[in-house]
Design goal:
Radius of gyration: 18 Å
Largest sheet: none
Number of helices: 11
Helix content: 55-70%
């Protein structure tokens, strides 16, 4: 796997500091956004978050107790109108009932508990672990996969296999939580840049 410290320096020079990259001011807002953005664009998720905020539902207790049909209308723009309202309410119930207890858990136990919540898969669990609970996590998303492959790394196709493959490089890099968030933001920016370059290079219709 690529030297992630060298990669971080390269991308920092190209894109500049990204800081605490994931959008959102509060942990619960970040977690809800991580669920709503699944297989969607951030612009769509942001509209749903604004709708929840305007309705007074961007808080664990109110969202968990809200009528599902009302939540469905508020988050419809994020797609998957049956699944996503149910998922954000499942997340809200978990936060209301378990989040304080979860803060005392080890990193692996916290991730395991997050994965038990409906609608939280491996990538979303890592986002919430990193950005909401301040735990060390590398987001093995498509941007990271694209950037590392472009530099010759053998990146497995599945998320769990990618996570296992990158673990030794992460251990060698000895990243702090803040540095992992920075690295994630840098990989996203580089991945977007590579995607735009590839799109421009594709021949148009003759």
């Amino acid at each position: 796997m690529h030297d992630l410290r060298s990669l971080q320096r390269e991308l920092l020079h190209r894109h500049g500091p990204q800081g605490w990259w994931w959008p959102g001011e509060e942990p619960f807002e970040i977690a809800v956004g991580a669920v709503l953005v699944q297989r969607s664009r951030w612009e769509q998720a942001a509209i749903s978050i604004r709708n929840l905020t305007s309705a007074g539902l961007l808080a664990p207790g109110p969202l968990a107790a809200a009528d599902e049909e009302h939540v469905r209308e508020l988050v419809r723009g994020s797609g998957f109108p049956t699944a996503k309202p149910r998922r954000v309410q499942a997340l809200a119930r978990w936060v209301a009932e378990r989040a304080e207890h979860a803060r005392a858990l080890g990193d692996a136990a916290l991730r395991s508990e997050l994965l038990s919540v409906e609608g939280i898969g491996a990538e979303t669990a890592d986002v919430i672990s990193l950005y909401c609970f301040g735990r060390p996590a590398f987001i093995c998303d498509e941007y990271a996969r694209r950037v590392l492959r472009a530099r010759g790394a053998q990146v497995p196709g599945s998320y769990p296999a990618f996570r296992r493959a990158v673990a030794p490089a992460l251990e060698r890099g000895a990243f702090s939580v803040a540095e992992l968030a920075e690295l994630h933001g840098l990989l996203v920016e580089e991945g977007k840049l590579a995607s735009r370059a590839a799109a421009m290079a594709r021949p148009g219709p003759s």
